[in-house]
Amino acid sequence: MVSIPTILLKGGNLLAHEGTKVQVLKGYDLLIEGKEIRKIAKGITAPAGARVVDCANKIVSPGFIDTHHHLWQSQLKGRHADHSFIDYMVHGNLHSYNYKPDDIYWGQLAGSLESLDGGVTTVVDHAHMIYSADHATAAINASASSGLRTFFCYNAIPRVKEWSSSKLEYEEELFPEWWHTQLDSLARSQPFGDGRVYLGLAFDSWTLPKKEIVDLWTKCRKSGIKLFTTHYVGNATGGKFLFVQVPIDVKWMSESELLKSDVLLSHVTRAPDEVYEIIRENGAFVSSTPDTELQMGLGYPVAFRDDIKSNASLGIDCHSNNSADILTQIRLGMQNARAVENEKRVRSGGYPAVDIKVEEAFNLGTIQGAKAVGLENQIGSLSEGKLADIVIFETRSPAMVCAAEENPLAALVLHASVRDIDMVIVDGKIRKENKNLNPLEVQGAPKFGSGKQIRWEDVVQEVLTSREAIKKRSESQSADVAKEALYRRFSGM
């Protein structure tokens, strides 16, 4: 009989939810058995063989949930410091063309581990880099290896056929036969990674015939896919939309029974007011990504809008552009929303005030994210019977001291950073401790195979080697040619 791993978190300050209200349980214990939180109380006696973790002077938080991310992009980090959307597309997104399956593996693994390092325990991965079945397999193997809980959202992308100094040409076929075959196979085989990696569908092809869209989504729902995600971003001029040539018609989605609680729309900036009403009424969710939205000209984050905040969550988007810890997005999104509200007050002759509270912001990264992915009964809060996805913060650092004593919730939302994260637990397994990532057992890793333990230092070496190979492949490719092709594509010309 295999013994169930048991961990007792002793004497911590737990951030526990009662609905959307967060209360601090001071000096409480939390018992983990296997994958689940078994008991929360004071004075729990450690079972025989349990590992006891001293959490005195620490804050114990539910794991954070990132509802929009492109995990494969690690090798592109540092490129986008001064890029708007179209520049990001040219120098970032399009370079999936230069990734071989091995590059996808290391980019995906490094991105997943960066998320874990930052206290994110669940990610919705909009996988827009599937050039072949091998690319998707590599990404899933990396996600499974990392220890991260992931929705791998399988995507059909416009695949570049040729990119040179003089032209950028796309493949004619959007849905090749291998794409459908692999999608069906993955749907039957999921979940992966000891049950942590679920299959979703990422879809941005809204110019297709409506019947074709309905047939695909219906087939996917019948196959057991439980999450559908799409980009929705409005351009400020001419009613054009950045990710598609026509606006996503959420009214038609609702009437066609596509828009349901299993749908997650990323960004949803600059949309007509009725769009938010339709999304809310259908139980769908939005994911705001403040860093990229504010930088790349996508519009103001909508997560704090009164007409959608009940159905909002937060995401990272591109860790090639910004950090992958959700604390940054919580803080940036909240302060931006506060500024927008106060600007309205001042312009109308009023005085500044703070109506948006840190509790609301914290919830966007935890329980709201769980609702967005349909797992609110399993993750997103510290509760007996839920999965043990937990982040433990040190409170004696220069950033956290005094703040944690005054208001633990404010300490996290306004003061904490990755350096304060002492331990990360996913599915009852410790993935980070003493502020360092633990070694991991890889599955289908280039050079290492399966079953071998590797360290973060090994990942660093492989991802840097991969980065150089990707750069070399791109040396003869014209950014100007690509930009012109993208302008034509997005303008519908």
UniProtKB/TrEMBL annotation:
Gene3D superfamilies: Metal-dependent hydrolases, Urease, subunit C, domain 1
Domain of life: Eukaryota
Name of this protein: Amidohydrolase-related domain-containing protein
Ranges where the Amidohydrolase-related domain occurs: 59-430
GO molecular function per UniProt: hydrolase activity, acting on carbon-nitrogen (but not peptide) bonds
